[in-house]
């Protein structure tokens, strides 16, 4: 006889569950903040400067971005690949951002100087809300992690690009961050 009470339902293995069914589940913000803080400390101990630290954060984000793309495509666009630059940017701006941060990015803009540049802005990025950066690292932008995620989604979608994070704070939104996306000529 089993030690399990008779009223406990049998759990379905995770691989047999529908990926759309778990869509509403959200990660606890405190857990995310703790994990990101630990990742930031890990990268900081191994970095030789601020640019190296941002590169390491971007590399971590790239690894996450590959998995995010796989999951989002399976959920939202099965058997369909986006083949337009604006389509993939809108997919990132809305679907990917919403799955990662619970809201759409605040703006998606085309660069005024170059035709191959676009910008995605977030007025209050989740990444920056719960960390404090020491004064000696004041120019560090922790959103390099998000830039890595976006770059991986673009690369995985066959739109090679370089993505960099820039602090563009204002009086109203001091944490505002803009991701500058510069597409390779082959992707345009």
Share of residues in helices: 40-55%
Low-confidence stretches: none
Output the structural class. Answer: alpha+beta
Order of helices and strands: HHHEEHHEE
What is the distance, rounded to the nearest whole angstrom, between the alpha carbons of the first and last residues?
65 Å
Strand order of the largest sheet: 1-2-4-3
Number of strands: 4
The DSSP helix count reads: 5
- Please state the overall shape, judged from the principal axes of the Cα atoms: globular
> Mean of the pLDDT scores?
85
Global Rg = 19 Å
* Largest sheet descriptor: 4 strands, antiparallel
Sheet-strand content, in percent, reads: 5-15%
How would you describe what is shown here?
By secondary structure, the chain is an alpha+beta fold. The protein has helices spanning 29-46, 50-76, 85-101, 126-129, 144-156, and strands at 107-110, 117-122, 161-167, 177-183. Strands 1-2-4-3 form a 4-stranded antiparallel sheet, with helices on one face. A hairpin with a 6-residue loop joins strand 1 (107-110) and strand 2. Helix 2 crosses helix 5 (144-156). The model has no long low-confidence stretch (mean pLDDT 85).
Could you give the topology of this structure?
Blueprint: H1 29-46, H2 50-76, H3 85-101, E1 107-110, E2 117-122, H4 126-129, H5 144-156, E3 161-167, E4 177-183
Antiparallel strand pairs: 1-2, 2-4, 3-4
Quick take:
This protein is α+β, with helices and mostly antiparallel strands. 42% of the residues lie in helices and 13% in strands.
Feature tags:
alpha+beta, four-stranded antiparallel sheet, 5 helices, 42% helix
